[in-house]
Amino acid sequence: MDRDAIEQLYADYAWAMDANNFDLLGEVFAEQATFSLEIAGMEDQIGPFEGRSAIIEFISGAVTEQTDQRRHVITNVRTEGSDVATAILSLFVTENGELDVRSTGVYRCGLTEGGGKPQFASMHLALDRGY
To answer: How many domains does the chain have?
Structure first.
C-alpha cells in the first residue's frame, strides 16, 4: 500500500475526529473493522468494537459529550509490511482559552482497501493516560 495513501488515511481520521465529522470517520473504517482502546493504569481494555457502525457509535458517543476542542496530531507513521501501520498520537485540548496536552499514545492499525482507497481494517490505540 502506498505510504502517502496511508498517511492520508491517518490524516482523514484525525480531521474527522477533530471536526466531529462522523460521515468522514465512517469512510476511514472498513465495514467489518475492529477498534479497541487501552489506557495506561486501567486493567480492562475498552472494546473491541466490531463493525464500522459499532465503532462510529462508540466514538460519536464519547466525542459529542466533550465541550472542548480536540486536535489529534498523528506523527511517525511507519509501515510493517503492506497491511500494518503504526503511528504516534499527541492529543491537544483547548478549553476556556487554556491549551493542554491531554494524552499521547500509539496506534497500531491493520490496513485494507475499500472503494479503491485504503481503510482501517483494525485499530488499537494504547494511550499513555486518559483522554
So the answer is: 1
